[in-house]
Design brief:
This protein is of the alpha/beta class. The chain has helices at about 45-55, 75-85, 100-110, 125-130, 135-150, 170-175, 195-200, 205-215, 290-300; strands at about 10-20, 60-65, 90-95, 115-120, 155-160, 180-185, 220, 230-235, 240-245, 255-260, 265, 275-280. The protein has one domain: Aldolase class I (TIM Barrel), CATH 3.20.20. Strands 7-8-9-6-5-4-3-2-1-10-11-12 form a 12-stranded mixed β-sheet. Strand 10 (about 255-260) and strand 11 (about 265) form a beta hairpin. Helix 1 (about 45-55) packs across helix 9. Bound molecules: S-adenosylmethionine and iron/sulfur cluster (SF4). Iron/sulfur cluster (SF4) binds near residues 21, 23, 25, 28 and 66.
Amino acid sequence: MLTDGHGRQFPYLRLSLTDVCNFRCSYCLPDGYRCDRGDSELTLAEITRLARAFATLGTRKIRLTGGEPTVRRDFTDIARAISASTGIRTLALTTNGYRLAQNAHAWRDAGIDAINISLDSLDAKRFARITGHDRHAEVLASIDTCLDAGYRAVKVNTVLMRGVNDDELERFIDFSKARPVSLRFIELMETSDRRAFFREHHVASTTIRERLLARGWLPCVRLPDAGPAQEFAHPDHTGRIGLIAPYSKDFCTSCNRLRVSSRGELHLCLFGEGGGLSLRELLAGDDQHDALVARIRALLTGKQAAHQLHTGEVGSTRHLAQIGG
Ligand code: SAM
Ligand code: SF4
């Protein structure tokens, strides 16, 4: 198992398939995606080799993310290749849901086990204001389609923002009561492109936590390859609620995940300085497998104990679509 200098193990990889996104979320890409690089995205063959190397190193779970990963034309082929031939046990997807309703069954058949759908409002007009797209009905419908399609887990990601949607916490809880979905409340993170937005709209996770505890939600024990969320359960609800609290003091202590960008750069931390560490030159052929495994293992020694987000050091990430949120 991959282990860093601080004794943390990494069974979980978040793999960005593209920086491109068709939405314009106000906290992420408010002006939409602008192409500012000439190099190409990893190919299907490169992605398969990468997944195989991480599986050799003990990675059990890969989450496909972006940008919007499903804008790739070969998205289904990528999912099928990772799930069928790399040794990865759990394949998850984070999506804005715009192509999900019509593809949920096909993607399940291609081997995707778990799905996170971003939904920042239960109100159609507000959803359109936040994302720049009038797709609320389709995204809502896709959640029910995923429940029918047999995914092991269906989760809804919501970034709560002051004055934007923080009045919807109870509505989201009621929404999850009526369906077996888990909610993920993600604390808004500061990125270098959206500093003023962060100052205006950040809601501390402690505030969300207090609101959950006051409503009878109880914290659950965390599993080793679980995501970053602290989970809460309630006796009257089938689904759980997760709170992703990057500013909390234990967030980095329990870090179990690495990131690879759509260009094959390893990011040891979402908020690291100096860009990613290139793996691409070792993804050209199957005969480079051992060298690739050795490079990843060696690079891990550089992982810092913690990010410095609480001091306003947001690293070189301009927005989360750049390296996969
Ligand atoms: N486009 C896909 C989506 O939106 O689900 C996948 C990529 S997106 C970067 C992954 C997740 O990061 C989404 O749930 C999104 O809400 C979240 N996110 C993006 N920017 C964020 C920020 N500044 N703070 C907190 N969460 C953010
Ligand atoms: Fe696109 Fe996801 Fe960023 Fe929204 S959060 S702009 S859907 S990458």
